[in-house]
From TrEMBL:
It comes from Streptomyces virginiae (Streptomyces cinnamonensis). Pfam families: AAA_31. SUPFAM superfamilies: P-loop containing nucleoside triphosphate hydrolases. This is AAA family ATPase. Keywords: Plasmid. Gene3D superfamilies: P-loop containing nucleotide triphosphate hydrolases. PANTHER family: P-LOOP CONTAINING NUCLEOSIDE TRIPHOSPHATE HYDROLASE, PLASMID PARTITIONING PROTEIN-RELATED.
Length: 269
């Protein structure tokens, strides 16, 4: 039995995709420390290594990376991800990472057979039962890394800023997700389009985009899971520490948002 594997995906950058992934990792780590779930894994499929860096690892000085798994000779062997897992930095202790480096981008032009299923096979037997893995996908249309991540995921969250980038990124992400559901992963479940980096106060554009998303996608638009914009988020990213290390109303609100997303994805509380 596989554990929950939740991908964070948009086809536009700057919409809080990696931030949502890091937030889910922090929330899951708290649940694991409390004994509510099993082990926590972070999978970085973005060659820029944003999530890898936030978890305290240097994408330019890795002993091994996800690229080693994705470049492996395809034999359908399960569990190979265990060979390239790294421990996150002390502040994130307990999280094991499939880290990204720039060389991972070469897999987009990899013509070897079965690359779309290599991550899924690699995670099988590693992320099991009560375990949780968050998968950060690159912000691009389709592509082999995106397909590999969606093929490996059980659920996908689509962060969307309430502007044109968020709207377009969500629309195009859904197009790709539906193609993957029809081919590589029929069981992939869309948790929803989640408003991301939402500013406080009145926003005419934000309200209009939110209404458009709600009218267009109905219950797939999850304004109940909205992630607010607070400066504490950028501070923790810079310091490379989980939001759970912070106190105050802003940190509490962000932590609740990430935890609510886990619950919506069916992660055992």
């Amino acid at each position: 039995m596989v554990g929950k594997r939740v991908a964070s995906y948009s086809e536009k950058g700057g919409v809080g995709k990696s931030a949502a992934a890091a937030g889910m990792a922090a929330a899951a780590r708290q649940r694991a420390l409390a004994g509510k779930i099993g082990s926590v894994y972070a999978v970085d499929l973005d060659p820029r290594g944003t999530l890898t860096s936030e978890l305290g690892l240097d994408p330019e000085a890795l002993p091994c990376s996800l690229n080693d798994l994705m470049a492996a000779d395809p034999k359908g062997e399960k569990g190979l991800a265990a060979d390239v897992l790294l421990e996150a930095a002390e502040a994130w202790s307990g999280i094991r990472v499939l880290a990204a480096e720039r060389a991972l981008a070469h897999r987009e032009t990899d013509q070897s057979t079965g690359i779309e299923f290599r991550l899924r096979s690699g995670l099988d037997g590693v992320v099991t039962d009560r375990d949780f893995a968050v998968i950060d996908l690159p912000p691009r249309a389709g592509g082999k890394l995106v397909v590999a991540g969606l093929a490996a995921a059980t659920h996908v969250v689509i962060p969307a800023t309430l502007d044109e980038d968020g709207r377009i990124g969500a629309r195009e992400a859904l197009d790709t997700i539906r193609q993957v559901q029809e081919t590589y992963n029929p069981g992939l479940h869309v948790v929803g389009i989640v408003p991301s980096i939402v500013p406080g106060g009145k926003s005419t554009l934000g309200d209009a985009i939110g209404k458009f998303l709600a009218d267009t996608y109905g219950p797939l638009y999850r304004d109940d899971l909205a992630i607010p914009r607070y400066s504490i988020r950028q501070q923790t990213r810079f310091a490379k520490v989980p939001i759970t290390t912070q106190t105050g109303k802003e940190a509490t609100a962000l932590m609740k948002a990430y935890d609510d997303i886990l619950t919506a994805a069916g992660v055992t509380a």
